[in-house]
Amino acid sequence: MERVEESANKVEEEVGRVVEQARELQESGASLISRISNEEQSLRQKANSLDSSIRHLRSFINSLLSQKLLDPKLADKLEEDLQRARCIITDGDAAAFLPAKAQGRFLRMFLGPINVRASRKDVQLKVKEEYNSYRDRTAFLFLLFPLTLLILRSWIWEGCLPAFPVQLYQAWLLFLYTGLTLRENILRANGSDIRPWWIYHHYCAMVMALVSLTWEIKGQPNCAQKQRGVELFLQWAMMQGVAMLLQNRYQRQRLYTRIALGKANRMDVVWGETAGVDGQLWVLCPILFLMQGFEAYVGLLLLKTAFVGVVSEWQVIFCGILLVLMAVGNFINTVQTLMTKSRFKAKMKRTKSKQELN
Questions:
Q1: pLDDT for 197-224, tens place per residue?
Q2: Helix and strand totals (H; E) in the chain
Q3: Residue 296: DSSP 8-state
Q4: What's the whole-number average pLDDT of the chain?
Q5: Which residue, 76, 209, 228, 345, is the most exposed by fewest CB within 10 angstroms?
Q6: Is pLDDT larger for residue 134 or for residue 345?
């Protein structure tokens, strides 16, 4: 009996000690979290103040330049210094304390009201690397998928595409553009400077892929005439795949150069026609303009086939209008970027000339 009481007391003491340790651990954890929260709030205030100071100084420099109260050469140097300071903040761990960008309705619609902003810089960079890998993988598929369909159409299907492979390709396009748009919105929430047009472009491409899934693929008779729009769209998709491969290669090289010069941060991505040096632009720009013109041509051809009664479904008209709008938007974005690069190049030449004169 005494042994039972002794064992019970011993167990009771152990349980009491464990309960007391749990309370002490809870108090220590709460104290640590409170201290970290206070320090984090202080760092957020400092980051917000510094970010506001950088914007204020840029505005002040531009104001002095417009009033001709500041030497343009000195203004350029100060602007570069401010850009480097901004990159130091956004590229380091302090980026987690900067104000977060709004996540937008698209992310809330798919993921709900969760915070997709990573607090650690290495996690943000992994998100960006995964995005780049996704672009590389899909670029090859963007080229191989339509190429395979066209080869099978000529060799096996006797010039007439079955409905299921085409709809499977359209479903893959919907998956592709949805994945790209989700990743780009998450990158923007983590501080990446993606051009808004490319996200809007992918919204349009998602809608077009969704609508095309309901598009009835016509067969015989007159299969070649009825599927002319589908054939041209597949040919355009192959061109898009080639352009994506070139862009991914050249743009990554260009972005690494800009990061090294302190003119971009590591979370930035480069899209479209903004790739590298003049030689790269001479290669990419004709391909991009040709692809945009061909995209508009496919859209107009779809509208023509609908209005002359060959294929009169509303999906044909809708996809034709979207293709034309996306082609026009891509062309305008390309021209604007080339004008910006031209002005920047002229500014650099003027600065270099002034340095040589001095």
A1: 888 888 998 998 888 888 776 666 667 6
A2: 10, 0
A3: H
A4: 76
A5: 345
A6: 134
Q: Are 181 and 202 in contact (CB under 8 A)?
A: yes
Residue 189 CB contacts under 8 Å (≥ 6 apart), including other chains: 100, 101, 102, 103, 104, 107, 116, 117
| Residues 83, 262 contacting (CB under 8 angstroms) | yes
The residue type at 120 = R
Helical packing angle, 314-357 and 196-212, nearest 10°: 160
* CB 202, CB 180: distance < 8 Å: yes
| DSSP for residue 99 | P
Query: Does position 278 have pLDDT exceeding 70, yes or no?
Result: no
Q: What tokens does 213 get?
A: 């899934």
What one-character DSSP code corresponds to residue 93? G
| pTM to 2 decimal places | 0.69
Angstrom distance (rounded) from CA 219 to CA 203: 30
Q: Which two tokens stand for residue 176?
A: 């592709």
What's the rounded Cα separation, in Å, for the pair 337 and 342? 9
Amino acid identity for residue 146 in this structure: P
Share of the chain above pLDDT 70, in %: 74
Alpha carbon distance 114, 102 (integer Å): 12
Long-range contacts of 26-30 (CB under 8 A, 24+ apart): none
92 CB-near residues (< 8 Å, 6+ apart): 121
Cβ neighbours for 173, distance < 8 A, ≥ 6 positions apart: 205, 209, 212
| Residue pair 127/186 in contact by the 8 Å Cβ criterion | yes
Residue 20 has pLDDT above 50, yes or no: yes
The single residue listed with the structure tokens 């598929």 is 141
